[in-house]
Amino acid sequence: MSPEHVYKLLTDLIYNEAELLDEQNYDAWMALLSEDYTWWMPLRHGQPDPLTESSLLYEDRFVTQLRVNRLRSARNFSQQPKSRSQHLLQRPVIAWREGELKAAAATQVIYSESRGEQEWHYAARIEHAFRLVEGQWLIAARKTILLNLERPLDSLQLII
User: What angle do CA 52, 47, 24 make, to 5 degrees?
Assistant: First the structure.
């Protein structure tokens, strides 16, 4: 694969992920994740490791699937009315070396979430780690770094 082709595939994957999340097409989104997928939201800037100190969020694929199941449940009263989201993305910066089976990306994001008459906005940097598995690029890890970690998090019902 040429670098240009890989950059396009990974950029399209990031845009597709945001679109699937905004459409709440969670089955298609989960299909983009590797079996050992993790999602991390550090509690502070410069936090080196999610396993040695507290984080806002650190979950594996199993816990992410539980989150998705909860979002779908009619008994999820925190989703009455249902939340909606919109990811506004800058063009991702892709890091990949020819011949490697892994890659990384960083994308600046403005994330908006609304429920009823309420609306929240968060600026963040999303760092992706990708792995090539049987000819398909999958998301192996996501790290969401909120710009303002000092402010209270009013609501994060969906997936940044």
Answer: 95
Does pLDDT of 160 surpass 70?
A: no
Question: Cα dist. 52→34, 40, 64 in Å?
Answer: 24, 13, 21
How do residues 105-138 score in pLDDT, each as one tens digit? 999 999 999 988 889 999 999 999 999 999 999 9
CATH of the domain at 27: 3.10.450.50
Model-wide pTM > 0.70: yes
Q: How many domains does the chain have?
A: 1
Distance CA 143, CA 46 (A): 12
**159 located within any domain:** no
